[in-house]
Specification:
The structure holds 2 protein chains of 2 kinds. Chain A is an all-alpha fold. Helix content of chain A is 88%, strand content 0%. The longest helix of chain A is centred in the middle third of the chain and has 27 residues. The termini of chain A are far apart. By secondary structure, chain B is mainly alpha-helical. Chain B has one domain. Chain B has a two-stranded antiparallel sheet with strand order 1-2. In chain B, helix 1 packs parallel to helix 9, helix 3 crosses helix 8 and helix 6 packs antiparallel against helix 7. Chain B is globular, with a radius of gyration of 18 Å. The chains are: A mainly alpha, B mainly alpha. At the A-B interface, helix 1, helix 2 and helix 3 of A face helix 3, helix 4, helix 8 and helix 9 of B.
Chain lengths: 85, 273
């Protein structure tokens, strides 16, 4: 699969699954597992899309760009870890 | 939650989603004051929900822009690295500078960019010899043309994104307002590609903050869910409009939005909003 399409489908899967869970959650009550996991899936989608970009670029042997994508993953994950400490 | 509140949150999310998809702006400058003033939330709650709305709008819009080739994933990732470095530097420097100085600098940059975008015509450099590392192509659905461009001044643009990241973390306003002009005016990326790329980037930037708030338990799930639904609807409408709109008009509208944003930021810092 083409890299752009793989990223697009990763994002689409995240938003569709996330929104289905959120809509069910909003219909049930204020705080429930549907809302929790729906929001978690939605929020995590951009990170999964960057990982998809990294895999796609590495498969195409575009090492410069794969390195950039890998750096973004590392920086973002490190930033979250530091913020949560 | 009362249905009227849920509908209000969806409407708010939809407005910001359209802005994100059309102009590559996150909409935090609208989200935060509206959530505080209209919905009576505390600043931290408003900021957390705002980030979720930005992620939802960005994911919804990018899923279309990336597939259509409008969002430049490679350039977006490159600039994301420098923006994040700037954001970290900004968080350190912010403690040593007065808020009003930062805000004035930020607003001056936004107004200057807006004027330059209105006054100067768009300059896109076509690739000379085909397949360079910085040569890209997308299809403009407004007229059916294939637009090829070579990204210029990568060093200067990356440095400017360090500044965008610094301003973003120091003022709390998303970097899209600076990144889009940087890509368009300095790096000569066509406006549609610049705003779509920014739309893709703001989701990655907002992810870190949103996930931190989420795990720390500071996120109101029901409110965030309402905003996320709206942001997706807005992004859906915005991506359709963004693909069909004429580039010159997109640039003009973006400039107007930048000036409005600068005024809103000044009002917020002045305690009026």
């Amino acid at each position: 699969m083409n890299m752009n399409r793989a990223i697009a489908w990763t994002l689409r899967a995240g938003i569709v699954l996330g929104l289905i869970l959120i809509v069910i959650g909003e219909a049930i009550s204020e705080d429930n597992p549907f809302l929790y996991y729906g929001l978690l899936v939605l929020i995590a989608s951009p990170l999964f899309a960057v990982i998809a970009a990294f895999i796609g670029l590495a498969q195409q042997k575009e090492w410069f760009w794969a390195g950039i994508a890998g750096s973004v993953v590392i920086i973002v994950v490190l930033g979250v870890v530091v913020a949560m400490l | 939650m009362e249905i009227i509140i849920l509908l209000g949150l969806i409407a708010l999310g939809a407005g910001a989603g359209v802005m994100g998809a059309l102009f590559g702006l996150g909409g935090g400058v609208i989200f935060v004051p509206v959530l505080m003033i209209v919905f009576g939330l505390a600043p931290v709650e408003a900021a957390a929900i705002s980030l979720v709305g930005i992620v939802a709008g960005s994911v919804g819009a990018s899923s279309v822009f990336v597939e259509k080739g409008l969002a430049n994933v490679r350039l977006g990732l490159l600039l994301e690295v420098t923006t994040t470095i700037g954001a970290i530097a900004g968080a350190i420097i912010a403690g040593y500078l007065q808020d009003w100085i930062l805000t004035l600098i930020f607003c001056a940059v936004m107004i200057y960019s807006a004027i330059r975008m209105i006054m100067s015509p768009e300059r896109v450099v076509e690739p000379k010899d085909g397949e360079g590392r910085m040569c890209f192509t997308y299809k403009d659905e407004a007229n059916g043309d294939d637009i090829s461009y070579e990204v210029q001044n990568v060093g200067k643009g990356s440095l400017a994104c360090v500044f965008a990241g610094m301003m973003s973390s120091m003022t709390g306003v998303g970097g899209g307002a600076i990144k889009v002009p940087v890509m368009n005016l300095i790096m000569h990326v066509p406006m549609k590609a610049a705003s779509s790329t920014s739309s893709y980037m703001i989701g990655i930037t907002a992810f870190s903050g949103a996930i931190t708030y989420f795990f720390s338990g500071q996120l109101d799930l029901a409110f965030a869910g309402g905003v996320a639904i709206g942001a997706f609807i807005g992004a859906f409408l915005g991506t359709y409009a963004a693909r069909k709109i004429d580039t010159r008009n997109l640039r003009r509208y973006f400039s107007v939005v930048l000036i409005i944003m600068a005024v809103l930021v000044l009002l917020r810092v002045g305690g009026i909003l």
